Amino acid sequence: MKHPLRTLFPLLGVCIILLVWHLIFLFSDSLFLPSPFDVIKTLGLLLTQEQILKDMLATLGRIFVSLALAISIAIPLGLILGMYSKIYDLFAFVIDFLRSIPPPTLFPLFMVLIGLGNAAKIIPTALTCSFYLLINTMYGVRNVKKLRIRVGQIWGLSKLKMMVHILIPEAAPYIAAGLRLAISISIIVVILSEMFAGTTFGIGQRILYFQLLYDIPEMYAMILLAGLLGYTLNTLYLALEHRFIHWSGK
Amino acid sequence: MKSTLIALNSVSKQYGTLPILHKITLAIKKGEFLAVLGPNGCGKTTLLNILAGLESCRGEIQKDPALRARMVFQNYQDSLFPWKTVYHNTLFTGSTPHDHQKAQSFLEKLQLLPYIHYYPYQLSGGMQQRVALARAFASAPSLLLLDEPFSSLDYRTSQALMGDLSKIWSEEKITTVLVTHNVQEAILLADRIIVFSEKPTHIIKELRVKLPRPRTLKMRNTRAFKKIEKALTRHLHGSVELSF
């Protein structure tokens, strides 16, 4: 059994990093390295500003819409590709090639095709996330235990029932792992696209804005905010995954 | 006289160039408990798959039009659905009040009622195999196929489960085909036992078990039991001379 103090270890880790950061700050004369305590204080102040809350909402909105798009396209496609190996063979090269393209290279293309609006941030993000979901869903379906398929066959299940009762639940842990990856990637791509394609509101845009104004503690605070946002989303998702896909690895 | 549920007439099966079953002729009567003994890899599971309609074969198969086969596998862990509770595993795709009633009834007969809200991975191996049996019985099969259902369980658990299976079978009289390596298990449960040869597999011995029911473990010490056991063992060993 873990010692009760072990639960405080992550907090201790944070304190050590802040202390090291502060020591570097004390012995450095760089204008671009603020004290961690200044950054935390600045973050507190920024969070009371309406503009920053709008930035957060804009970024979160783009992340959720991108993920919703990716889920609604990639999971059904992944199920089809997993069930029908001939269709997979037909598109295997195209999928492998497209998913090898680094997402930022798509920004100029989408800016030309669809302008600078939200779509230019959402579509590249949804596309990037789709590949993670597609591949994981497909592998999930392909790795369904043969014996469970045999049970379905003996019980005379239709294709639809086989999918609902066996394939989708069996593939769910793989799909969940894909979604976990997709969430992390979506945060990166949305923030990058906000920096690249420009926008009125968004965390990426705000980081770039503070950097251009040399508001260094504010810039650090926004980076910290992006990190906190990513951590919170991942933690929430992991808790949901644990709750709803309890059979993972069983 | 009981009518035939399914009959195989000169059925053969081969995988590529490897012959498995060779001209098997076998009629299974309604309400009969048939056990199939044979060496590893002789095609016992293939026979079950053919009976379940999962594998094609050469030869002729005559089936009762109302045939409804269900199977219980040796690997209970992979055959159950870990995302469904014990209750929903048993119910599986059933949805009518009658299906619920059946599921409830067999869960009770297999002493699973206290565990209906558990997931299979929270249960012991023996309990999981009980769930697999409950699921098979609850779906009202006319042909129950048992593929070495006790071989992954410890001695005590397998004996207890055999006892429950025997009791339920006596009440329901569902036509059952049991594939096993265990001679005693076959004698305790079956009405008729067939012994398969090595590949290409054919039936080398067919024997009727006339021991009275209900059968008990004590019967293993009776002369009649030992006689059947000796006859079966002789055919199973064939020409192989064992030395240790």
Task: Give your account of this protein's structure.
The complex is a heterodimer of chains A (250) and B (244). Chain A is mostly helical and 250 residues long. Chain A has a domain at 63-201 and 228-244: MetI-like (MetI-like fold), CATH 1.10.3720.10. Chain A has helices spanning 9-27, 36-46, 50-83, 85-99, 106-114, 119-142, 146-154, 159-197, 203-212, 216-244. The longest helix of chain A has 39 residues, at 159-197. Chain A is globular. The model of chain A has no long low-confidence stretch (mean pLDDT 92). Chain B has helices at residues 44-51, 76-79, 86-91, 97-109, 125-138, 155-172, 183-189, 223-237; strands at residues 4-15, 18-29, 33-37, 58-63, 69-72, 143-147, 175-180, 192-196, 203-208. The relative contact order of chain B is 0.17. Chain B has 8 helices and 9 strands. In chain B, helix 4 (97-109) packs antiparallel against helix 5 (125-138) and helix 5 packs parallel to helix 6 (155-172). Chain B is of the alpha/beta class. Helices cover 35% and strands 25% of the residues of chain B. Classes of the chains: A mainly alpha (250), B alpha/beta (244). At the A-B interface, helix 7 and helix 8 of A face strand 5 of B.
